[in-house]
Each structure stands twice: as structure tokens, then as C-alpha cells.
Amino acid sequence: MTSLHHRYRYxxxxxxxxPSSSYASGESERWQSFKILFxxxxxxxxxxxxxxxxxxxxxxxxxxxxxxxxxxxxxxGRVSLHLVHCSKGNVTASYEMSVIKKSQxxxxxxxxNDHNFVSHGERCWTDFSYRSNILDNCLDDxxxxxxxxxxxxxxxxxxxxxxxxxGMITDMFLDExxxxxxxxxxxxxVLEDAxxxxxxxxxxxxxHSQILKACAPILASLFDTDDEKITTATVSITDxxxxxxxxxxxxVYGGIVPDGEMKTHAKDIINAADKYSIVNxxxxxxxxxxxxxxxxxxxxxxxxxxxxxxxxxxxxEVVVDYLIENSEEATEKLSFADVPGYLMKDLLFVINRRKKxxxxxxxxxxxxxxxxxxxxxxxxxxxxxxxxDGSREVMIRALEENASKSADAGKDxxxxxxxDE
Length: 421
What we know:
Elements: E1 16-17, E2 31-38, E3 52-53, E4 57-59, E5 62-69, E6 78-85, E7 91-100, E8 106-117, E9 122-130, H1 131-137, E10 145-152, H2 165-171, E11 181-185, H3 188-194, E12 203-207, H4 209-215, H5 217-220, E13 233-237, H6 242-252, H7 259-264, H8 266-275, H9 279-292, H10 300-309, H11 313-325, H12 327-333, H13 341-363, H14 374-383, H15 392-420
Parallel strand pairs: 11-13
Antiparallel strand pairs: 1-2, 2-10, 3-5, 4-5, 5-6, 6-9, 7-8, 7-10, 11-12
Helix pairs in contact: 6-8, 8-9, 10-11, 11-13, 14-15
């Protein structure tokens, strides 16, 4: 039986970290890391001398980008990487550039110490690897090439403090002095078992109606804050454990749920975030649940039904992928009597089409939303400012409607240009 547990691990890029052994010259040195992802590397222009530029990023007060030659800078069948200094003026930089293998090791590394970059100058890593080596050993399952770039931080670079506003809002979390609303949170099951100790089982959380209105409208709607006679409006929450509600409210104020807590209480957080429409927290908890749960024959159907009940499209996709890869065993051992017909029919059809035609469709340069995974759909929705929660069908429909509107707008612009002429 094939486990999908390991296939959905995510790598977090750490912004400030320790140098590799080649730079281990002092504990006081600080490094800033960037992971540059070249998606669909195999489809990038690959003639000798043809290059693709990454978006710009900022380090040590200067703008940079990475230029890749997928088919070689001077020699055919090779790959080259050039670090480009995009700002005006000169700067001296020390950095380390590595190509990440799909096994998460490093294929090769270029170490550069105190190189002087002129305005818009480049430092070349020319034809460092055969293209075939990159294609065979470095691309992930989606065809993405990852390059890790470590910059030595420059203490002499201009210091720009971070915007303090988000931290100030987070500091208002549970501030009773400035709060104007209050939650009394207890779990009904706990209260029933507690008897005379019921009162001690509830926990009070003070909050601010304006923050709730902006970041958690459903929670805000529980209060009648227009009643001027009420100094601090209070409502009771009886369907969420106080500890889970604390994570929920802290997230609304810009806080972060610790990884351990997120994985341990992922389902409870999903349930609460789904009910009160804290969408991003729900999606984060869904990913944490997938990362910490091994899908097996014993729990596949239960997880599938749970994913459907909570509209967890990513978890649903993981379970369906597992069932497809283990279809023979699933047919023999599992009962699908409780699984809605629309769920299995639609999802199995979509996954099978994606497996069979993904490479073919992408090579034709077509954008096929129906062949994209849930993660890619959510990313595209977020880039366009659209709602990221919902089933695959809802997400696909939203992207298709957005694409249609963009196409219509483009036609209107062309018509206007023709009229001007």
C-alpha cells in the first residue's frame, strides 16, 4: 500500500538563518535566504543564449533578480544562472547560490565572497550543469526548479524599521481596558459533565468590535453594539473549547497558532474556523491536518466524508489521490455506501483526467483549471483577490468567470483603440 503522508510536506523558507559550512566564520554573522522557484522549467525557452528573469527581490537595501539560461549561456545543453543587481550604484556582496535536488539535497553550490556589483551588473555561474542533469534530478512533481540564494547581511546597509501597526493590533488581544465586547466561552459537553463546577469551566475573552467587523464579521454580528445602554456587550459561545477559541481570536488579531498546537488540534480549529468563517486559519489548519495525518484504508472514508462536510477541498484531494493509487485494495476492502455519488464520480473523474492529460495540456500552453490541484487553484484565486475557500467546482467556476471577464475587458479595450484610430 502506498502512503501519501510524505507527499504533502511543505518546505518553509526561513528569511534569516545560519550560513552553510563554507561560511562558518563567526556566530555573529547573519544571513538572509531566498528561494527562487522556476515553474515549468522544462517549458522555458531553452535555445543557447535565451534567458528568463525572476521577479525582483530586495536584500541589504538593494534590488536583485535571478536570470536563468535553461539551455545554456554559451554552450548548448547546459544551464546557467546569473545574479543581477537591479539597483543604481555599486555594492559589494557575499552570497551562496545552490540548486536544490528533488530529494531536498543540493546538486551544486556557487560561493562568492565580496564581489563588487556595478549598476545593473551581473555575476555569472556559467553553464554549471548539464540540462539533462537538472531535468532528471532537480524538478519536483510539478516541474519546478528551486534555487536557494543566501546573502550575507550587511550591517552597514540602510536600516528601515518594520511597520509596527500589525504588532500593535496583536498587542490589543485580550486587552480588557480598551475592549468593548466580550465572549464567554464554554463547551456544552464539558458543562453537562461538570455539574456544580460549570461556572468555573467558562472563560472570558475581551475583544474590540471594530477589529471583529474588519477581520471576523460573523463573530462581530453576534453583538448588538448599537445599544448605547450596554457598556460592554457580551455573548456566550458554547460549541467551541475555550483553548480553541483563544487560538481563533488570537489569529483574528494577527497572531500565529504554534505548529505543535495547530497539528494537535487541527480538526477542532478547522471546525471552529469553518463555523465563524476565519477562512485563512481554516486552510492553514487543513494543511496541518494533512501533514500530520497518514491516510490509510482504515481512515480514508472517514476523512473523505469529513472533508466533504467541512468543504476541505485539499484534504478531499489527498484522500481521493490515495484511493486512486490504491484502487484495487480499496475496491476489495472499503464500502462506499455512505459516500455521496456526486463526490466519488466528480472527484475521481477530475483526478484521472489530470493524471492522464496534465503534461499534454501544459505542453500545448493551455490554461486548464480543471486539471489543476487544489493548491494551485487556491494560489491563483488569491493572486486575483478572489475567495479561496470552497469546493474544486466552486474555485474552478470562479477562475473561469474571472478569465472570461478579463477576456471581455481586453476586447473592449481593443474596440476603444480601434475607435480612436
